[in-house]
Every structure is written in C-alpha cells, then in structure tokens.
Design brief:
PyrdxlP-dep_Trfase, 2 domains, Aspartate Aminotransferase, domain 1, binds pyridoxal-5'-phosphate, globular, Aspartate Aminotransferase, domain 2, 5-stranded mixed β-sheet, alpha/beta, about 15% strand, single chain
Amino acid sequence: MFENFETDAIRIQTPRTAQNEHSTPLFMTSSFIFEDAEHARAIFAEEVQGNMYSRFSNPNTTELMDKLARMEKTEDGVPFASGMAAVFNSMFALLKSGDHILASRSIFGSTHSVLTQIFPRFNISHTYADIGNIEEWEAGVKPNTKIVFIETPSNPALDIIDLSWISAFCKAHNLILIVDNCFCTPYIQRPAEWGADLVVHSGTKFLDGQGRVIAGAVLGRKDLIKEIRFIARATGPSLSPMNAWIISKSLETLAIRMEKHSENALKLAEFLEKHDEIELVKYPFLPSHPQYVLAKKQMKLGGGIVTLVVKGGLERGRKFLDALKWFSLTANLGDSRTTVTHPASTTHAKLSEDERLAVGIKPGLIRISVGLEHIDDIIEEVSQALANSK
Ligand SMILES: *Cc1c(COP(=O)(O)O)cnc(C)c1O
C-alpha cells in the first residue's frame, strides 16, 4: 500500500509463487488444493482464509478487488461477471420484499429495467428524482426507503449530482447511498470520500479501457460488502480469472489513460463549442456546463465523454453519424478508440420521447467517448463529418 494512486494501481499484486514470476500469472483453475483434511474443514468453516473454489475466490479476482478497493478508498469489494451483475446485486443483496429505492431519473438503461421490470416482481418499488431538484429527493423518501442509487455524471446527458449533498441527505434519512462510478473511474472521482456507502463499476468501460472484456465490481463498507459477497458466492455471478487478470493489468495505466482521455475530450469540446453547425455541446469541464463549479469540486478531470446536438435535429444527427469515416459506431464506451452512439435510437430507445427529454436526451443528441487517438485526427474526423452531413 502506497500513498499515491498510480503506485497502488501498479504495485498491488498477488504474492509471487515459487516460480518467482515478475508479472501476476493467470490462475486458470476452478478449485484449489487443501493441505489436509483439517485444512479443508477449517476453510469450509471460514476459520482460516484461503482459496477453495473459483466461484468463491481466485487470486486474480482477489488482486483486482484489493487494488480497486484501495483505488476507490473503500474497505472491501466483490467482483462480478458484468457491471449489471454488480448493479443488480449491490441492491438485491441488501433489500427484502416491501423495500423501496430512491434513484436519480437518468440512469443506465439496464439499471432502469432492473428497477422498473425486475424488482417489482419481488415487491421492491422505486421512485425517481431529478438530479437538481431537492424537493423531489425530499418528497421521494418513504418509511420503507432503504437505498439511494445515483450516477454522476449521468449517461448520456452529463448532469452532475453534488456528492457531499446527497451523502448528507442519505445520512439524515438513514439510507444506503450507492454510486455508479463508471464514467469517472476512481482516478477522477471517489464517491466514498464524499460519504457514499457503496460504489459500483462496470469494468467493461474505462477500467479495461480497450474494449475487450465484460466485468463489474461493488466496492464499499465492509458490513455491506459481507452481505453482497454472501449472495454472490451462493448465486454465482462470478468474474472469470481471465477477465480479472486483464482488468488488473489495465489498471496499471488507468491514471495516464484518464489524463489523455480527458485532455482529448476537453479539446474536442472546445472545438465543438466554437463550431457554428453545433446547437449544444456538454462537457463537465467546459465553463458553459451548468454545473461547472460542482464538476471542478468533485472531479479531478472532465472525463472522456462529450455529448453534442448537431443543428438540424434527428435527421441531421443521423447524417452526421453516417458521414463519420473511422470513429466506431458501437454501444461501448471508455475505449482507446473513439466510439459514437445515438442514444435516442439505441441505448435509450425503450424510453418514451417524454422520458428521454426528462433525462436530457434530445432527439439529435450524440454521445462521443473520446479515445486516445491523436487529437488532430479526432477533430479532423468530426469536422469533415459536420461538413459532409449538411
Ligand atoms: C455499461 C454500464 C453499466 C453496465 O455494465 P456492463 O458491464 O455492460 O454490464 C452500468 N452502468 C453504467 C453507467 C454503464 O455505462
């Protein structure tokens, strides 16, 4: 354990084996050997710590959790096979029939499905509140509310919640605060330092950062993690050693990648803001962002995501996408390659137009996850697509 984020991200490592390897090996094994009958008994009884079966733990997933928990400044963590398994279990493991969740209205599409279509089957209800509307949050608390679930910045509108305010609000009402920190990563924002109880991640995005694997994690308070780990071990949404190994390696470069993503994104946002074919551009570290001051307070950098609306509405937005020559049209984000999506027709197509507008998704809104290519090439690509889509 070190004082500095970058050193922890590189040096937290599974103890070396007898082979004296430098880099952590991949432990592709479903189970582990007991020394003798007594050791087997003691491990099953949880009297001693140790690996027994990779649904429960594996050196690669343990290394990843030790690292991520440290990077998020939290006590402990549970690995998951995907970000959605992490999101679902962070709530499911702590709730029972009759409980209620208060969530920010603009949340990830599949998280919306969990709240609106899956939890109601178990008599777990929810209320949405607008990020900036304090009365809605106050009015949303019921006697049976247990959890507050938020994303900041939101996807794709990039609205920001004041983490210190929402933490104080949750403490005052005795609620568990869960923050999806996917867009920022712990290099840019650490919700637990502002008082969040749990932080959830999709490792699929910036943590891997190269568009290769699906993974997730829940980090946070030891007592809550204990409950979540119990459910995860018994029900089996386990992260594979292979995917944990890949992400743990990726974390070694997280700091420099997030620096570069943010630098490129800010330059692109500044270019777009001056372009007369653009109706709107939103980026947390542009002074024109409505919550610029708040973004500067709780985020170290602006992150890799820029949203824009091209003049000419939905049709023009589609023409713009078709005029792109090499940006990837894909559902993923947080890749070293610049990726682009049109939320209204893809990730948020299941919402009604009114629901979309309520979370800041205009018909022509385009989300760009700015990659690590040279900024001159990124700007040239956008610039030619704007010129060729009139
Ligand atoms: C992608 C994403 C998820 C889900 O993660 P998966 O790894 O795809 O399951 C959850 N929250 C946010 C904000 C995301 O962007």
